[in-house]
Amino acid sequence: MSETASGNPVLVEVIRGALVESRHSGAIAVADAGGRLLLALGDLERPIYPRSAIKAMQALPLIESGAADAFALNEDELAVACASHSGDSVHVEAVRGLLAKAGLDESYLACGAHWPISEDATRELLRTAQRPRAIHNNCSGKHAGMLATAVHLGLDPKGYERPDHQVQIMIAGIISETCGIALDRSRMGIDGCSVPTFALPLAALAKGFARLGSGEELPSERASAARRLCHACFSEPAHVAGEGRFDTIVLRALAPSCITKGGAEGVHCAALPDLGLGIALKIDDGAKRGAELAMSEVIAALQPEAKHGLAGQLNAEMLNWRGIVVGRVAPSEALQRATNELANQIVR
Amino acid sequence: MSETASGNPVLVEVIRGALVESRHSGAIAVADAGGRLLLALGDLERPIYPRSAIKAMQALPLIESGAADAFALNEDELAVACASHSGDSVHVEAVRGLLAKAGLDESYLACGAHWPISEDATRELLRTAQRPRAIHNNCSGKHAGMLATAVHLGLDPKGYERPDHQVQIMIAGIISETCGIALDRSRMGIDGCSVPTFALPLAALAKGFARLGSGEELPSERASAARRLCHACFSEPAHVAGEGRFDTIVLRALAPSCITKGGAEGVHCAALPDLGLGIALKIDDGAKRGAELAMSEVIAALQPEAKHGLAGQLNAEMLNWRGIVVGRVAPSEALQRATNELANQIVR
Predict the structure, then answer these.
(1) Nearest CA of chain B to the CA of A250: how many Å?
(2) CA of B179 to nearest chain A CA: how many angstroms apart?
(3) Could you tell me the end-to-end alpha-carbon distance of chain B, in angstroms, rounded to an integer?
(4) Is B15 on the interface with A (CB under 8 A)?
């Protein structure tokens, strides 16, 4: 079971005073729809669990099955089906609406409950003396999409989250085809929200995201479904995550040229439709601060015009409890070198 | 500024299904009061910011100055002066009591405010529509101790947190003498709570903790002050951290044979007075889950009888939102090998 150190380079440094206090190593792939790598840092073949980063892939059956049309889902609902949402009322309403259109309610959700990511939403629950429910779980939109797909296909919605349910089998097929890789059941884990998660190499994920964003190398129905999901996310950035959160900030700043999606344990992916590229990265230790800084750097290299919109993410100062600047989160030399080379490739 | 990968070994693995999902590298030192190393994993000479792990050292002037006696501080108050507390009412009351005995109130605290670490305490504030104050900051006990020291010595309490204040100068001297190392001002950063933090090698920290726990190699007044602080922590485990938190759990299970203290960015230290040993470790990426698992493994190697009391920490299952076991946090082969060798040394 145990493995030696991954050998991945340090990508991100956490600096306090004059010292590097902590460091995050990891791997990053930037690929086109054919799988050609424009940036290859670290081990891109070792399978990693993409977690929530591939929610849009998990939402494709919602469209491809005809469920989205049959239930007349709007863009809020499509966006929340792709989301790791903050549990605000806008999210809860969109999830409730999606379920209702499929003739279901929140009692069908099998994701488990957790306090909303949003502090405001948590405060509101407390003010009204409520405990969080499954619908507040950041994955509830994804689950609602899976349930709606099951209902539309005339399948038993119960057990929709299990690996042997037809909806999960469809999703596994889509991930496999989109990323161009056979899924290995020995690499299947259980996600935080109880659905299966399949480990994939970063190179394959980056290729998959290039395809999702541009439609290249996808059957036309899938390309169309992907385009529709992306359009929903571009139209409803707050539904994909929430206020103050990375993916919402990026969507607001860069749509429709860039869509990002983070996952637990330091995974982050992105599609850049105009460039026909996909990005997939994983921070070895799982740290979100490492993943978000690295993703910001790669996007800025690919789209220099993004530097303004991502200024807060690129110049990640660390403030202490009194608001004093005590340090910063910064790219390592290895990451800087790699993104400089990447930027040069794009310019040419 | 940028440095290459530390070269430290992977110590802890986060396993989901059959795969290592994430990994934490770092360094660990176990030393006696003379500095002899019984365990040396990774780079023990690179200076690291110990952060909250050395709060007991920062509290020594409170006793050595005579303030603790002059103000008749009780054990709750001494323990909270060494604490990264959860911000529960027991902690807030102890801090308020300490300040009051010195003729001060919470308005003197310069640590800044943050929501209590304790979820219950946070929810109570939210339920009563309150914002957190400086006294809820996990460092407020440490700051109260510094303030009381200043008052007792007839110093201006304002600015007590600044590097040039006499109390901070005293603390720096104590850290330097206890760990047997010159403090380099170029290695001074600002802590989250605004006091100075001096970067030290793990080897020196481990030696310092061996000394604090056993009194060996310390002047008798310091040994006595350290003993008194340890006794307060052994008597009031909940005041040192809080319910459900690692340092409180360890104190409850193992006092008086072991006292641990964690710090931000994956630092954890411990003193084992009966064995005359100290432990100091840092996880490269700053992850607490890595630090706590590694610390548990080292303690269990040094004190096999601890395995029962630390069972929850050693067998760190990961549950998802529905309480399904999805993985575990486990020691790497390198850590297992090192702790096995350590255990053999102790047996002999």
Answers:
(1) 25
(2) 20
(3) 44
(4) yes
Q: Residue range A90-99: average pLDDT?
A: 98
Q: Where are the beta strands (DSSP E) in chain A?
A: 10-16, 19-32, 37-41, 47-48, 188-190, 196-198, 200-201, 259-263, 267-272, 277-283, 316-319, 325-331
Rounded to 5 degrees, φ, ψ at B275 are -85, -10
Instruction: Note which residues in 190-229 of chain A have CB less than 8 A from chain B.
Output: 190-194, 197, 199
For A189, which of B5, B191, B327 is closest by C-beta distance? B327
Give per-residue pLDDT as tens, A162-180: 999 999 999 999 999 999 9
* CA separation, residue A115 to residues A41, A126, A134, B119, B130 (Å): 36, 10, 9, 11, 19
The predicted complex's ipTM stands at: 0.96
Question: Is there a contact between B2 and A21 if contact means CB atoms under 8 Å apart?
Answer: no
Phi, psi for residue B251 in degrees, rounded to 5: -60, -45
B343 touches chain A (CB under 8 A): no
Over 50: is that where the pLDDT of B44 sits?
yes
Instruction: Provide the chain A residues 61-120 that lie in CB contact (below 8 A) with chain B.
Output: 110-114
Task: Say how many residues make up chain B.
Answer: 348
